[in-house]
Amino acid sequence: SLRENLLSITLLVVVLGVILLAWIRLTALLTALSVAAVDPSLPVLLDKLLMTPEGLAMLGVFLLSGGLLAALVFTISAVSFPMLLDRPVDTLTAMATSVRAVWQNLPAMLLWAALIAGLTLVGMLTAYLGLIVTIPLIGHATWHAYRQIVAAE
Question: How far is it, in rounded angstroms, from Cα 72 to Cα 16?
Protein backbone atom coordinates (compact mmCIF):
# COMPACT_ATOMS: atom_id res chain seq x y z
CA SER A 1 0.00 0.00 0.00
CA LEU A 2 0.97 3.63 -0.31
CA ARG A 3 1.66 4.08 3.40
CA GLU A 4 3.77 0.94 3.72
CA ASN A 5 5.97 1.79 0.74
CA LEU A 6 6.00 5.58 0.81
CA LEU A 7 9.79 5.74 1.06
CA SER A 8 10.31 3.25 -1.78
CA ILE A 9 7.82 5.07 -4.00
CA THR A 10 9.49 8.38 -3.18
CA LEU A 11 12.90 6.95 -4.08
CA LEU A 12 11.57 5.73 -7.43
CA VAL A 13 10.16 9.19 -8.12
CA VAL A 14 13.55 10.70 -7.24
CA VAL A 15 15.34 8.29 -9.62
CA LEU A 16 12.94 9.24 -12.42
CA GLY A 17 13.34 12.93 -11.54
CA VAL A 18 17.13 12.66 -11.79
CA ILE A 19 16.77 11.05 -15.23
CA LEU A 20 14.47 13.91 -16.26
CA LEU A 21 16.97 16.49 -15.03
CA ALA A 22 19.76 14.71 -16.93
CA TRP A 23 17.66 14.81 -20.10
CA ILE A 24 16.96 18.54 -19.65
CA ARG A 25 20.67 19.30 -19.11
CA LEU A 26 21.66 17.13 -22.06
CA THR A 27 19.16 18.94 -24.27
CA ALA A 28 20.47 22.33 -23.16
CA LEU A 29 24.04 21.24 -23.78
CA LEU A 30 23.30 19.83 -27.23
CA THR A 31 21.44 22.99 -28.18
CA ALA A 32 24.22 25.25 -26.94
CA LEU A 33 26.89 23.26 -28.76
CA SER A 34 25.16 22.96 -32.10
CA VAL A 35 22.41 25.43 -32.90
CA ALA A 36 22.87 28.35 -30.54
CA ALA A 37 22.05 31.43 -32.60
CA VAL A 38 22.63 35.10 -32.02
CA ASP A 39 18.96 35.63 -32.82
CA PRO A 40 17.03 33.13 -30.68
CA SER A 41 13.73 33.66 -32.54
CA LEU A 42 11.81 30.57 -33.57
CA PRO A 43 12.25 31.02 -37.36
CA VAL A 44 16.03 31.39 -37.02
CA LEU A 45 16.25 28.44 -34.64
CA LEU A 46 14.14 26.21 -36.89
CA ASP A 47 16.16 27.25 -39.95
CA LYS A 48 19.44 26.47 -38.20
CA LEU A 49 18.06 23.22 -36.76
CA LEU A 50 16.48 21.84 -39.93
CA MET A 51 18.60 23.34 -42.70
CA THR A 52 22.18 22.88 -41.54
CA PRO A 53 24.25 19.71 -41.14
CA GLU A 54 25.04 20.69 -37.56
CA GLY A 55 21.36 21.20 -36.77
CA LEU A 56 20.36 17.89 -38.30
CA ALA A 57 23.16 16.12 -36.42
CA MET A 58 21.98 17.73 -33.18
CA LEU A 59 18.42 16.66 -33.93
CA GLY A 60 19.59 13.09 -34.51
CA VAL A 61 21.62 13.00 -31.30
CA PHE A 62 18.72 14.61 -29.43
CA LEU A 63 16.25 12.00 -30.69
CA LEU A 64 18.64 9.12 -30.01
CA SER A 65 19.52 10.27 -26.50
CA GLY A 66 15.90 11.07 -25.69
CA GLY A 67 14.83 7.67 -26.99
CA LEU A 68 17.46 5.89 -24.91
CA LEU A 69 16.44 7.78 -21.78
CA ALA A 70 12.76 7.08 -22.49
CA ALA A 71 13.58 3.38 -22.92
CA LEU A 72 15.45 3.42 -19.61
CA VAL A 73 12.54 5.11 -17.82
CA PHE A 74 10.02 2.70 -19.31
CA THR A 75 12.17 -0.32 -18.47
CA ILE A 76 12.69 0.56 -14.81
CA SER A 77 9.14 1.76 -14.20
CA ALA A 78 6.87 -0.42 -16.37
CA VAL A 79 5.69 -2.47 -13.39
CA SER A 80 7.55 -0.76 -10.52
CA PHE A 81 4.79 1.55 -9.34
CA PRO A 82 2.04 -1.09 -9.28
CA MET A 83 4.40 -3.47 -7.51
CA LEU A 84 5.27 -0.86 -4.87
CA LEU A 85 1.55 -0.26 -4.32
CA ASP A 86 0.81 -3.98 -4.14
CA ARG A 87 3.68 -5.40 -2.05
CA PRO A 88 6.08 -4.26 0.66
CA VAL A 89 9.24 -4.35 -1.50
CA ASP A 90 12.14 -1.95 -1.84
CA THR A 91 12.80 0.32 -4.82
CA LEU A 92 15.65 -1.74 -6.26
CA THR A 93 13.58 -4.94 -6.15
CA ALA A 94 10.71 -3.20 -7.93
CA MET A 95 13.02 -1.75 -10.60
CA ALA A 96 14.80 -5.10 -11.11
CA THR A 97 11.45 -6.84 -11.43
CA SER A 98 10.38 -4.26 -13.99
CA VAL A 99 13.57 -4.74 -16.01
CA ARG A 100 13.07 -8.52 -15.95
CA ALA A 101 9.40 -8.19 -16.92
CA VAL A 102 10.24 -5.93 -19.87
CA TRP A 103 13.01 -8.21 -21.19
CA GLN A 104 10.96 -11.38 -20.75
CA ASN A 105 7.99 -9.83 -22.58
CA LEU A 106 9.86 -7.55 -25.00
CA PRO A 107 7.49 -7.59 -28.03
CA ALA A 108 4.42 -6.91 -25.89
CA MET A 109 6.30 -4.27 -23.86
CA LEU A 110 7.49 -2.47 -27.00
CA LEU A 111 3.87 -2.34 -28.15
CA TRP A 112 2.81 -1.14 -24.70
CA ALA A 113 5.45 1.62 -24.74
CA ALA A 114 4.28 2.73 -28.19
CA LEU A 115 0.65 2.77 -27.02
CA ILE A 116 1.58 4.86 -23.97
CA ALA A 117 3.45 7.33 -26.18
CA GLY A 118 0.62 7.47 -28.70
CA LEU A 119 -2.15 7.87 -26.12
CA THR A 120 -0.17 10.55 -24.32
CA LEU A 121 0.41 12.39 -27.60
CA VAL A 122 -3.32 12.24 -28.40
CA GLY A 123 -4.07 13.56 -24.93
CA MET A 124 -1.63 16.44 -25.40
CA LEU A 125 -2.89 17.32 -28.90
CA THR A 126 -6.37 17.87 -27.47
CA ALA A 127 -5.13 20.84 -25.42
CA TYR A 128 -4.30 18.33 -22.66
CA LEU A 129 -7.99 17.61 -22.09
CA GLY A 130 -7.60 14.13 -23.54
CA LEU A 131 -5.18 13.31 -20.72
CA ILE A 132 -8.23 13.26 -18.43
CA VAL A 133 -9.18 10.05 -20.23
CA THR A 134 -5.84 8.64 -21.37
CA ILE A 135 -3.87 8.84 -18.10
CA PRO A 136 -6.41 6.84 -16.03
CA LEU A 137 -6.74 4.40 -18.93
CA ILE A 138 -2.96 3.90 -19.05
CA GLY A 139 -2.83 3.51 -15.26
CA HIS A 140 -5.64 0.95 -15.26
CA ALA A 141 -4.06 -1.05 -18.08
CA THR A 142 -0.66 -0.89 -16.36
CA TRP A 143 -2.19 -2.35 -13.20
CA HIS A 144 -3.66 -5.24 -15.17
CA ALA A 145 -0.40 -5.81 -17.03
CA TYR A 146 1.43 -5.94 -13.70
CA ARG A 147 -1.12 -8.40 -12.30
CA GLN A 148 -0.71 -10.71 -15.30
CA ILE A 149 3.07 -10.47 -15.59
CA VAL A 150 4.30 -10.17 -12.00
CA ALA A 151 1.57 -10.75 -9.42
CA ALA A 152 0.68 -14.11 -10.92
CA GLU A 153 4.23 -15.43 -10.23
Answer: 10
Q: Sign of dihedral through CA atoms 32, 33, 38, 42?
A: negative
Three-point CA angle 76, 12, 100, nearest 5°? 25
What's the one-letter identity of residue 146? Y
Query: How far out from the chain centre does Cα 23 lie?
Result: 11
Per-residue pLDDT, averaged over 130-139, amounts to 94
0.90 surpassed by pTM: no
CA gap 96, 104 in Å, rounded: 12
DSSP helix/strand/coil, 8: helix
User: What is the C-alpha to C-alpha distance for residues 91 and 84, in angstroms, rounded to an integer?
Assistant: 8
